[in-house]
Amino acid sequence: MKAYLISLAAGVLVGLLYSVLDVKSPAPPTVALVGLLGMLGGEHLLPLVRTWLASGLH
Question: Terminal CA-to-CA distance of the chain, rounded, Å?
Answer without folding.
Answer: 32
